[in-house]
Design goal:
The protein is of the alpha+beta class and 529 residues long. The protein has 13 helices and 13 strands. Helix 9 (308-363) crosses helix 12 (485-495) and helix 11 (411-428) packs antiparallel against helix 12 (485-495). It is elongated, with a radius of gyration of 36 Å. The two termini are 61 Å apart.
């Protein structure tokens, strides 16, 4: 064991007892002059009582201070564990989250390597997802960084190590397993050594073994000390916490996608109903105008034969009917574009929710199939889709595409990036224009959406892409918003290997820029072949 650990433990015990002794003396202090013997007895009794009640809480309180004082060069990361992200949405996907935690684990415990195996129901085995550290001889790996093997290792569901961790769900070192007399422990130790591991622990959700972590030996080749075991225990709890969140979020996201699909059917039904009513109203207007013309002609031709007392009320009634019917028709026609706009916005919100559920669920389940995407064509189609809404607000919505530009990705992701930015720009702009442009910037393609809207407060700019749900200040004056559009833009840009940035000035407008890696012509030729 490190001599500093012995020093820390001794200093911790001594300082704790010293403080408890001071407390005991303070209890008997009022009797020191009048009854010295009683004061001594009360002090000893007080110290004993304080030790029984407060030794462990006081020791835990003092330990962080001593860790900072004695181990700042090696154990300063202990404080960082309390500041680890508690929200799974801080990560793009499950692999990124695992990589983050495994990196912390490897550096904190000073390990040569760490392997994470997660259960794959299709293979009926635990498949290696993450490898961090230096490879051992014979590993199908290159270099010494965080990487994926060309052929993922598997641990059979029936292996001795899996069965042992399923029954004995805690952290086990090779030394612990070697002291166990059961055949299961011997087989587990053999499996652990085949993987060149020095310790292992399970990742459980309730009674299910979701995965297992194989810890390589320490870089110093020393056995694990109490601090190492504490670190590994913290990381294990963090892994289980995140993976449980991942499973819950994935299921909730899938439910969100299902509900969005049902809502989409309702929205489509409303769209169809509005279109049907618009056609009926147009037909009714034609019939009404023809009937009114026929009545007016009859009244003109037959009016001379009617008494004046009858002719005047009839003409007045006909004029009133025409005026009221025309007013009702005009009001109904004015309501149609309002209803169509509301339905379109509802459809867009439903699509956003469905995409949000999809990005969360797929982010923790796998990757999407990519293809060559024409950026200019996607921008023009998106602008055409949003033209009617822009014209309804008397805004100039246009696209500037200099030439053919391509990325390697998923078309739907790019469409969602552009359309969410256009949607936000139209919501924030009451007069002026919204410009959608793309251009080549070195090895990237820059997509720009610029508006002359209300702008974003400077204090909000650093956080608008971080996580849902951002609501712009003054949102009550704008159209309804779900608050997840900019989060989706950032997530989709990262999924496509890019990034997003914003410039904004209150009262003057905003400019959003998305940089995505360009797909070169030679790469497109290879894909086409």
């Amino acid at each position: 064991m490190d001599w500093r650990l012995n020093l820390r433990n001794a200093a911790l015990r001594l300082s704790t007892l010293l403080l408890l002794g001071v407390g005991g003396v303070a209890v008997g202090l009022p009797l020191r002059f009048s009854h010295p013997t009683a004061a001594l007895v009360v002090s000893v009794a007080g110290m004993g009582l304080l030790t029984a009640l407060w030794y462990d809480p006081l020791r835990r309180t003092l330990q962080p201070a001593l860790d900072r004082l004695l181990f700042a060069d090696r154990y300063s990361y202990l404080e960082a564990f309390g500041q680890l992200p508690n929200d799974l949405l801080e990560f793009t996907n499950l692999r990124e989250m695992l990589r983050f935690l495994v990196t912390r684990l490897t550096e904190a415990a000073q390990l040569k390597r760490v392997r994470v195996f997660m259960y794959d129901s299709g293979r009926q085995a635990y498949v290696e997802m993450i490898f961090r550290g230096s490879p051992r001889p014979g590993d199908d790996l290159a270099g010494s960084a965080d990487r994926q093997p060309s052929r993922a290792l598997e641990i059979s569901d029936s292996s001795a190590l899996v069965q042992w961790l399923r029954e004995e769900g805690r952290l086990w070192t090779a030394e612990d397993l070697s002291t166990q007399s059961s055949p299961g422990a011997a087989g587990s130790l053999a499996d652990l050594r085949k993987l060149d591991g020095a310790a292992c622990f399970p990742i459980n959700k309730e009674n299910d073994l979701m995965g297992l972590v194989i810890l390589g030996p320490k870089r110093s080749n020393e056995p694990f000390n109490p601090h190492d075991l504490k670190i590994l225990g913290i990381l294990r709890r963090q892994l289980e916490n995140f993976l449980t969140q991942a499973m819950v979020l994935t299921q909730e996201a899938l439910n969100m996608v299902k509900d969005s699909h049902s809502m989409k059917n309702d929205v489509n039904a409303l769209k169809g109903r509005i279109s049907w009513r618009a056609l009926r109203m147009a037909s009714w207007k034609i019939d009404f105008e023809e009937e009114m013309a026929r009545l007016e002609k009859w009244l003109t031709e037959a009016g001379a034969q009617l008494p004046a007392a009858s002719r005047a009320p009839l003409a007045q009634a006909l004029a009133a009917l025409k005026e009221r019917s025309s007013g009702f028709l005009a009001d109904s026609q004015r309501s149609l574009p309002i209803e169509e706009n509301a339905i379109s916005r509802l459809a867009h919100h439903v699509k956003n929710w469905a995409e949000f559920g999809r990005v969360v669920a797929e982010g923790f389940r796998g990757r999407r199939p990519f293809e060559v995407v024409d950026v200019g064509q996607t921008l023009r189609l998106s602008v055409d889709r949003w033209k009617p809404m822009a014209e309804g607000k008397n805004l100039d919505l246009s696209a500037e595409v200099p030439g053919p530009l391509f990325i390697w990705g998923e078309r739907r992701l790019l469409e969602q990036i552009v359309e969410n930015l256009i949607d936000n720009a139209l919501k924030a702009t009451s007069h002026g224009f919204v410009l959608v442009a793309c251009r080549k910037e070195r090895d990237d393609i820059e997509i720009e959406v610029r508006d002359t809207g209300c702008g974003i407060p400077e204090n909000d700019l650093a956080a608008i892409f971080d996580k849902p749900f951002y609501q712009r200040l003054g949102q009550g004056k704008l159209d309804q918003s779900t608050g997840i559009g900019l989060y989706l833009v950032a997530q989709y840009a990262r999924s496509l290997g890019g990034r997003v940035a914003v410039e904004s000035h209150l009262g003057k407008g905003s400019t959003f820029r998305v940089l995505l890696p360009e797909h070169k012509a030679e790469k497109r030729a290879v894909v086409a072949a």
